[in-house]
Write a structure and sequence with these properties.
The structure holds two protein chains of two kinds. By secondary structure, chain A is an alpha+beta fold. Chain A folds into two domains: 5-87, Sandwich (ATP Synthase, domain 1), CATH 2.60.15.10; 91-131, Single alpha-helices involved in coiled-coils or other helix-helix interfaces (Up-down Bundle), CATH 1.20.5. Chain A has two helices and eight strands. Chain A has helices at residues 92-107, 114-131, and strands at 5-10, 15-21, 23-27, 32-35, 42-54, 60-73, 76-81, 84-86. The longest helix of chain B is centred in the C-terminal third of the chain and has 77 residues, at 218-294. Chain B has two domains: 4-23 and 253-294, Helix Hairpins (Orthogonal Bundle), CATH 1.10.287; 24-252, ATP synthase, F1 complex, gamma subunit (Pyruvate Kinase, Chain: A, domain 1, 3-Layer(aba) Sandwich), CATH 3.40.1380.10. By secondary structure, chain B is of the alpha/beta class. Helix content of chain B is 59%, strand content 14%. In chain B, helix 5 (149-164) crosses helix 6 (218-294). Classes of the chains: A alpha+beta, B alpha/beta. The interface between A and B is medium-sized, with 24 and 25 residues. Strand 5 of chain A pairs parallel with strand 6 (213-215) of chain B, so a sheet runs across the interface.
Chain lengths: 138, 295
């Protein structure tokens, strides 16, 4: 029996991934979870973190997501992410700059919205972490 | 009759204007293509989010969300989307005219009591309404060329703030929708409160009975989904408006280039006639001078 199902990863800018996989690991706001074939209908919000797509041959791809939603029904998974980049597509220099900028702004709390800066910091740190991971073969 | 030199000067000036309009047309065409690509790439996200909203907004818990539940309308907020620059045909003036007509018809009751406020997007509309001292609750301009979804989010957050603090009970948007490069549609849309679309009962996907698991809870998902939905709506509106602007500019500049060409050809005709008349006159003078000498 086939173990794959259809996944679409969509951001406001473009469709990041559209194809068949055998597993999706996503960072839910309540905790990380994995979707396999024949999962029940499910909607979850996801936070900033790491998303993995596992292909049928065990090959795993890493993505950095910046929050959004995941919707499962009838063996179709839809990931609506605000930002989402493949580990190989991450602009490391930009993430580093963003990271340093956010750090600096945190020291100057009076002038910036701390929540926003914290989020920016998280996003940048997440990108840096995921950029360092390579897609793995088992 | 104009002298030769005057006509020549006019031809030169019209020619340089033609060059400018032609360049503007090309730039607009290139930007239009980019804007169209943006619209197309934003579509999948907007559609999927829209269908999620459709599914969720009809649940009972959704009505607890203030952005969905209706209330008595005392104050109205109108978001006016124009362009930053002119020279794009009737693009800005149709919007401004529409807003004026809304103020004297549909929203007259609110406008007369000073309960209608505007949020201007784009410099042209801003200049017009600020100069005429309308109540302006937010001003956004000079971002169309480097537009990103965060611009849309800024506009939405100022609208939502007005709405949540009950300074506005309904929010509308007026903008030009992109139909084709030659055609723009003027659209008035309600932004807030969000109105869930009717669900087609044959479509089991949106059937409320389908057992969904929600994580964290349905209520929380709706609360985070609605602001995103609004941002995407506004993003779509900005993209549409930008594409429409470029389309309008392209056609306006195309006809301007054509008109300049016509003007040049009539002027050159005039120039050649005047030149010929001058030559004939000179020959006549020479000939009559020679004849006078012979006698």
């Amino acid at each position: 029996m086939e173990k794959t199902f259809h996944v679409q990863v969509i951001t406001p800018q473009k469709v990041v991934f559209d194809g068949e996989v055998s597993g999706v690991v996503a960072p839910g706001t309540v905790g990380s979870f994995e979707i396999l074939k024949n999962h029940t209908a499910f909607i979850s919000s996801i936070k900033i973190g790491e998303m993995r797509l596992r292909h049928e041959d065990g090959y795993e791809e890493y993505y950095a997501v910046g929050g959004g939603f995941l919707d499962v029904h009838d063996n179709k998974v839809m990931v609506l992410a605000e930002t989402c980049e493949h580990s190989a597509d991450i602009d490391v220099n930009r993430a580093k700059l963003a990271h340093d900028r956010a750090r600096k702004r945190l020291e100057d709390r009076a002038n910036y919205d701390v929540d926003l800066v914290n989020q920016a910091l998280q996003r940048a740190a997440n990108r840096l972490e995921i950029a360092s991971k390579r897609a793995t073969r088992p | 009759m104009a002298t030769l030199r005057e006509i020549k000067r006019r031809i030169v000036s019209v020619k340089s204007t033609q060059k400018i309009t032609k360049a503007m047309k090309m730039v607009a065409a290139a930007k239009l293509r980019r804007a169209q690509e943006n619209i197309i790439s934003a579509r999948p996200y907007a559609y999927t989010l829209g269908s999620l909203i459709k599914h969720l907004a009809n649940c009972d818990v959704a009505r607890q969300n203030p952005l969905i539940s209706k209330r008595e309308v005392k104050n109205v907020l109108l978001v006016v989307v124009t362009a930053d620059r002119s020279l794009c045909g009737a693009f800005n003036s149709t919007i401004i005219r529409k807003v004026n007509s809304l103020m004297s018809n549909e929203f007259k009751a609110f406008h007369d009591k000073g309960r209608l406020k505007l949020v201007t997007v784009g410099k042209k509309g801003d200049e017009f309404f600020v100069k005429r001292q309308f109540k302006v609750a937010g001003r956004f301009y000079n971002f169309f060329n480097t537009m990103s979804i965060s611009n849309a989010a800024d506009i939405i957050s100022s609208c939502v703030k007005e709405y949540n603090e009950e300074r506005a009970d309904e929010v509308y948007v007026v903008y030009n929708e992109f139909k084709s490069a030659l055609q723009q549609n003027l659209v008035l849309e309600k932004l807030l409160p969000v109105e869930p679309e009717k669900v087609d009962s044959n479509d089991h996907r949106y059937n409320i009975e389908t057992d969904y698991i929600y994580e964290p809870s349905q209520f929380e998902i709706i609360n985070t989904l609605i602001p995103k939905h609004l941002n995407v709506q506004m993003w779509r509106i900005l993209l549409e408006s930008f594409a429409a602007e470029m389309g309008a500019r392209m056609t306006a500049m195309d006809s301007a280039t054509e008109n300049a060409g016509e003007m040049i050809s009539t002027l050159s005709l005039k120039y050649n006639r005047a030149r010929q008349a001058a030559i004939t006159k000179e020959i006549l003078e020479v000939v009559s001078g020679a004849e006078a000498l012979q006698k």
